[in-house]
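Researcher: I'd like a candidate sequence for this fold, 375 residues long. If you have to choose between options at a position, lean toward the conservative one.
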């Protein structure tokens, strides 16, 4: 095995997904470690209990942190279930550097000593300056993670001299297959202030009036974000058409949204408060979609909203020349159980399909079973 060419070793490691399995290759011999070090740490996939050990390993060998480009985190929490008593001597200088008050420093220290994963994660991000892709399960109220991301996003001191998140290109947030999870849109607006970000995929985003954070990073980027691909996956509810995200993008090219009636549960007197249901995409699409749009996918909409969908898309198609000169394709998909609808249901989109043909836009209706393209 020691005679295997470097190329073969790299190919083997490249086809192993879990970090804990790839790491074993570094322990075989010095040659393998030298050849495979960057390849092993290029893509790191860990769980919450591994956050602190990884940070301590990076402190011992900073090359680990600078090698990480793709970081994936699953099953972590911002709550401290079993309090511990960790030695935090090695991270105290960093805590003192990024804290903005004595109270904040004390808050960090107490959380780190107790083993709070959110606090350790916030510090871990500071050591991955070359990270280009972040894929993670999210959790509610991640105080320390939110603090680091928001300050790094707008280069707030001391992050004006720290290249944290400045190379991040791709962000993916998923909801851990928990259909009761929800996150207010404000949580993710800081990402749109990052200079290199191009693709954002978010699960369980719910718009409401109830959450406001008084910090500039949590405001829309107002047409300055470089994001070109934006997707809202499982369980979103865009009662305001996700307008703050869409209008933050300077040159959005792809937008995908799957509506659900996910709602925010009350924090108090839950048993006595009704759910707050919202309608999706109340804003007119033509008013919030950017002129650079090339491809639009509207999927998993409620069947009862078909007329509203057709009406909005007809407006978009009608002003293609003036507002959407680059738009080439619109894909429409109802819930999967409704895709085998009657011919009359599909025929309802005929005027839209014809309007698209007239201006050079492909309208794909229920594409899994029914595809209509212009000749």
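Model: Candidate sequence:
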């Amino acid at each position: 095995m020691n005679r295997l060419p470097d190329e073969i070793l790299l190919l083997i490691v490249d086809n192993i997904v879990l970090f804990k399995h790839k790491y074993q290759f570094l322990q075989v011999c010095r040659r393998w470690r030298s050849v495979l070090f960057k390849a092993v740490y290029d893509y790191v996939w860990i769980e919450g209990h591994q956050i602190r050990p990884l940070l301590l390993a990076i402190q011992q060998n900073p090359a680990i942190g600078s090698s990480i480009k793709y970081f994936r985190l699953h099953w972590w929490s911002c709550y401290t279930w079993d309090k511990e008593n960790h030695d935090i001597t090695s991270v105290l200088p960093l805590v003192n550097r990024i804290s903005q008050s004595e109270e904040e420093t004390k808050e960090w220290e107490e959380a780190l000593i107790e083993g709070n994963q959110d606090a350790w994660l916030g510090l871990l991000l500071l050591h991955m300056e070359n990270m280009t892709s972040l894929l993670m399960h999210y959790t509610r109220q991640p105080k320390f993670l939110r603090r680091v991301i928001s300050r790094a996003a707008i280069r707030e001191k001391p992050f004006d001299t720290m290249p944290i998140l400045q190379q991040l290109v791709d962000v993916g947030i998923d909801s851990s297959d928990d259909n009761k999870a929800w996150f207010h849109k404000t949580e993710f607006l800081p990402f749109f202030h990052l200079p290199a970000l191009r693709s954002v995929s978010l699960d369980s985003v719910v718009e409401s009036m109830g959450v406001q954070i008084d910090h500039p990073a949590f405001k829309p980027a107002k047409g300055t974000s470089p994001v070109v691909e934006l997707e809202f996956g499982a369980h979103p509810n865009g009662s305001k058409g996700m307008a703050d995200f869409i209008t933050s993008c300077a040159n959005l090219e792809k937008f995908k949204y799957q509506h659900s009636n996910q709602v925010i549960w009350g924090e108090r007197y839950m048993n006595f408060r009704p759910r707050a249901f919202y309608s999706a995409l109340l804003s007119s699409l033509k008013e919030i979609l950017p002129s650079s749009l090339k491809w639009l996918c509207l999927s998993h909409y409620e069947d009862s909203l078909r007329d509203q969908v057709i009406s909005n898309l007809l407006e978009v198609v009608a002003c293609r020349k003036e507002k959407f000169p680059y738009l080439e394709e619109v894909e429409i998909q109802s819930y999967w159980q409704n895709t085998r609808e009657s011919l009359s249901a599909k025929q309802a989109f005929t005027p839209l399909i014809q309007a698209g043909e007239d201006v050079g836009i492909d309208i794909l209706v229920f594409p899994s079973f029914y595809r209509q393209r212009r000749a």
